[in-house]
Each structure stands twice: as C-alpha cells, then as structure tokens.
Design goal:
The chain has about 100 residues and is mostly helical. The chain has a domain at about 5-45: Histone, subunit A (Orthogonal Bundle). Helices cover about 40% and strands about 5% of the residues. It is built from 3 helices and 2 strands; from the N terminus they run αααββ. Strand 1 and strand 2 (about 90) form a beta hairpin. Helix 1 packs across helix 2 (about 20-45). The longest helix is centred in the middle third of the chain and has 24 residues, at about 20-45. The N and C termini lie far apart (about 70 Å).
Amino acid sequence: MTSLSRDDVAKLAGLARIEMSDAELVALSNEFTVILDAVARVQEVAGEDVPATSHPLPLRNVFRPDEVIASLSPTDALSGAPAQEEQRFRVPQILGEE
C-alpha cells in the first residue's frame, strides 16, 4: 500500500501555492492513497510483453503537405491600403522617432 502523509500533501500544496485546511490535507492524503494504489495495480498487470503507450490509438500526421501556390503581388496586397510608401503599408508614427 502506497500512501502520502498529511505532511507530504502539505508540502505539495505549498509548492503549488495552494492554501489548504488541515481537514482538506487529511482528506486529500486519503484520496492520493486510493489513486496510488490503483496505479500500482495497473503496473502489476502490465507485463514485459505489454509496450508502454502514451495514447490509446496510434498517432498519425493529419496535416496536409506543403504546396507552393501563387500569392498576392505587392500591388494587389496594397490595393486596399489607405496609405502606402515604397511597396509597404504606411502607418502613423507612434513612438516619436524620426
């Protein structure tokens, strides 16, 4: 039986910067004991022939391949701009720099 003491839970709560009452620390200590026992039982069942997994289903890449396509020309991109200068958007000066 694996368990965490009230002091262990208090230390974890302190590291996580969570304030807990004494009753909460005791209750959480008991809950952690149940959780740790369940994990220990699962570890007993998994034998050497069972590979470790991080996901229940196999992962696959769902992204499409990159394809080069035509993009907007500078003229087309700037066509709706209220102001432009040297093929760039012209915006108001905000930092007072020259």
